[in-house]
Amino acid sequence: MTYTFSRTKLIEKIKFGLLSPDEIRKMSSARIVTADTYDEDGLPIPSGLMDQRLGTIEPGQRCQTCGNLVSNCMGHFGHIELARPVIHVGYSKKILKILRSICPECSRLMLSDEEKDTLRQEQISNRKMLSEGDEENTGQVYKRARKSKICPYCGAKKKKIILEKPTTFYEEEEIKGSRRLTPIEIRERMKKIIDVDLRILGISPQNARMEWVIFTVLPIPPVCARPSITLDSGIRSEDDLTHKLVDVIRINQRLRENIDAGAPHLIVEDLWELLQYHITTYFDNQVSGIPPARHRSGRALRTLTQRLKGKEGRFRSNLSGKRVDFSARSVISPNPYISINEVGVPKKIAKILTIPTNVNDWNIEQMKQLIINGPKIHPGANYIIRNDRRRIDLRYVKNRKIIADMLAPGFTVERHLNNSDLVLFNRQPSLHRMSIMAHEVKIMKGKTFRINLTVCPPYNADFDGDEMNLHVPQSEEARTEAELLLKVQEHILSPRFGGPILGGVQDFISTVFQFTNKNSVYNVKDTLKLLYMGNVFYSHPNFDLNKIEPNIKEPEPMYSGKQIFSTLLPEDLNLRLRSKFCKKCFIKDGNVCKEEKCEYDAYVTIKNGELLAGTIDENSFGAMQSNSILQRIIKDHGNATGRLFLDSATRMLLYVIRLNGITMGLDEVFIRGESHEHIQKVLHDATDEAKKLIKAFRENNTKILKRAPGRSLKETLELRIRQILAEARKKAEELATHFIGDEAHSVIMTKSGARGNILNLGQMSAVVGQQAIRGERINRGYSSRTLPHFKVDDLTPKARGFVGQSYRNGLQPVGFFFHAMGGREGLVDTAVRTSTSGYMQRRLVNALQDMVIENDGTVRNSDKNIIQFKFGDDSINPQHTDHGDAVNLDVLLLKAKSLDLNEIRRIKSKTAKTTPKTKQPVKTTPKTKQPAKTTPKTKQPVKTTLKTTPKTKQPAKTTPKTKQPVKTTLKTTPKTKQPAKTTPKKEKAEKSPKAPEEEKLHHQFKEETGKNAVWRGKVTQQFIEWKEQNNGIKE
Amino acid sequence: MTKKRNVDVLLHILVPKHILLTKSETEELLEKYKIRLTDLPRIFDKDPVAIAIGAKEGDVIKIIRDSDTTVSKVFYYRYVIKEKV
């Protein structure tokens, strides 16, 4: 047999049906008689289960049926002639339905002719394309036929038929009780059903006669469907299906011999049943009602149904999903020194994964070196594909030098993975598109994949043993697509809401909080180190530390954390937001937010890239925070700048972590002395009050215990007690946090939003509080009491799950038990939630996976049916929105304000002075105003340290709050303010030597083209081109 | 069976505006999306709204929905088919 695949063919139709015994015999290439596989020499026994006519599995051997080698022989079926017919388990339900619908004598469908006609007519009119009849109508047929008692054709009385699962049928006799129906009888009845009746029953007489459901001949699948495995020890191990077939044949032989020998009826019956059992389990080994067939070791056999069914079955694991080449999997571990765009790949993995590289004139020398290095030295190569498409495995090449010399353009070298190659990185469950992102490879020692900590949130990864997958794109197209669409930096902004999903995590947050706090100052040495770590000299090439006025000058110059952090920001960043720990003063009546002047330093103000006030915390630096610094940078400067900021900021903060150190010990939550007693008193009082209410409840005193609307007295009591206890806990918590103070590292963590909350702190230090199950105090267990430690109907807090101790001081046994009850409920809840949501996700994906947005904006499925007429409503990409809004007015206004000032100044200076020389002083004054404005604010926190320098302090002290007086004082006391004033002047002065001429050119450019030469503080590209052109003309 | 009540479903706040398309409008629609009638999503002729606007098998209904995000309305179309019992 030869197959040609030269032409593509259209599938006209697919027919599903049952195999008739004749068909089984026709397609069989061997009748199997012997219940054995191989003889002593290891040769297949003829007419045995491994008969060579069933196809070969041994390489080099030709198939006795088709004459092909293993690779081309697709196997051939055999057959067994069964001594007695046997029912197919999968159809036992259908058999029952049909037996109940037909006459036991004449096998006619027990419906009158008229009824049949109308039903058939309905079936035909409602049927879908190509199907025999309508499903719903067919259901009606069975329903009605079952009701009829007497055959309208022969007058026979119908008997009740019972199915004893899985394959035994009984017919109830009037007198004798029930009688077993043998498969022979059933087959006879099925055989007698006429074609017309079969059609009405929803069965195609051509494709699936019902008697074919009862086997007289069993097909034997080809050997390649049940290959035997040769173990290392040389012992042959047969497939489960072969084992099962051996059983079937053995019993079948015995049954035949017994029948031929005229054995007693009982023995034949027993053997027949055994044959039925074996064939049933051959099809499905998990049928209810019979024990599954087992291997000698006790393992249940994996038969036909098990091969197909479920997650590990053929469909879900081999057809819907497949294993892939060019992939790797390993444990992940953190490395904060690599970029978010990078992934650390172990050398061992890099030597296995390859990238096909075409050899050309430009890279031939490089490729030669790789080949010489070979598969074992890292930047090497594993294979070469020659011009004639022959593949050379470098593992088996003796002298690689020779191979390297014959390399020519047009060859392909499969080289090792190397630095800056792009790979796809993935963590399951892949719930959103950020679960697979492209990273640049960084070869590292060790055996784990290394990722930056800030990319953990999108993957939902941690390092408690998580593993991740890596895939290497093989084509240029795939790499380009990965570069442009899949890189991590392209996914900083989430498509779910227009905010960043990347950002500082855990220690980065607590550190940035400490770093930008009022009191954090660093000397020049540390500052320079921090700036170096933060890559500031790279990201801001014009950066000069001398231009920044140190926060403290005596005894040595010190820079504040705010100042150092500001160096990371772009010069045009303007931002105002409230911190996580904002006390929300403005909510209370009559209070207004003091904004920059917030006494808690909780209002972040960034003006022109300088952090003027506010402490950076989770709200401005954390992951999943909208309107954070990162989001604003990306909106204005793009993903690359955003990535650089995140990389540099985290690296800078890493050094701060090393300087500060963050730790938490038990003593931090240990509350002693008065505070402890105070907390105990609060709890005691609450218990007393609860007891008072309980007493009132018992006495039915509605004066003390007033019934809440719509609730019974008992419910009211529960409600009130819960309220009292919650209040008490809250109060204890407040006392505890007050005692712990603001300096404790645990408080810094909760305050900055890095980890934990106040409640956790309170539970550790003060009181764990009420444990609840289903939102109620614990009330289950014994009758009318929770534990035997309490009296019946004890409603006191202690007896109903109120844990009055703290984790630090230790829980009492009863409290511990209640706590475990409450904890277990939480665990169960999460377990249930994940499994249900996972299944829901699977259903949704299966339903929606082939929907496509066509070019005309419609959503269509694979049949091109329209599902939605216009996708995406307003056509705004949520990834590019500002938290769902197309424009964020607050941000725009803020931007406009800072822009306008510059613009106005420029226009003013231009109109006031015509000559550029005189322009300069006018222009610089407003600039100097700014730093002057900032000085009082930034200085205030360090007032105490400033006391040593009375000269500089005085003006600051005397300066009233408004802006204008600042100017005057500055002018009147020029000597004292001099250092402060001159330094910012210098800043401008650095640029100013060029400025007059440049300014002139800017002006000229604007007049000629009508466009601004400077945009957002930068000279435009158009201006530069124009300038070059002009210069050329002049010369 | 529940009693048939005289309620105009079209007046309900959650029911968007339904319009019966004319032959020419239908053709225009099919031309616009380059589809056949059967490619449209379906609605039963026994659907309360279909009854209310008097749609028969083979008609096309245009549904005008208000959208939270767009200024203009969003259009949906339904092809009326006979409901099987």
Radius of gyration of chain A: 42 Å
- How are helices and strands ordered from N to C of chain B? EHEHEE
Shape of chain B: flat
Strand order in space, largest sheet of chain A = 8-16-9-15-14-17
General description of the model:
The complex is a heterodimer of chains A (1035) and B (85). With 1035 residues, chain A is of the alpha+beta class. Among the domains of chain A are: 88-213, no CATH class; 327-485, Barwin-like endoglucanases, CATH 2.40.40; 507-578 and 610-659, RNA polymerase Rpb1, domain 3 (Enzyme I, Chain A, domain 2, Orthogonal Bundle); 666-828, Topoisomerase I, Chain A, domain 4, CATH 1.10.132.30; 911-1034, no CATH class. In chain A, the strands form eleven sheets. Chain A has a six-stranded mixed beta barrel. In chain A, helix 29 crosses helix 33 and helix 29 (916-939) packs across helix 34 (995-1009). In chain A, 32% of the residues are buried. By secondary structure, chain B is an alpha+beta fold. Chain B has a single domain, classed as RPB5-like RNA polymerase subunit (Eukaryotic RPB6 RNA polymerase subunit). Helices cover 19% and strands 25% of the residues of chain B. Chain B has two helices and four strands, in the order βαβαββ. In chain B, a hairpin with an 8-residue loop joins strand 3 (60-65) and strand 4. Chain B is flat, with a radius of gyration of 14 Å. The mean pLDDT of chain B is 84. Chains A and B meet through strand 29 of A and strand 4 of B.
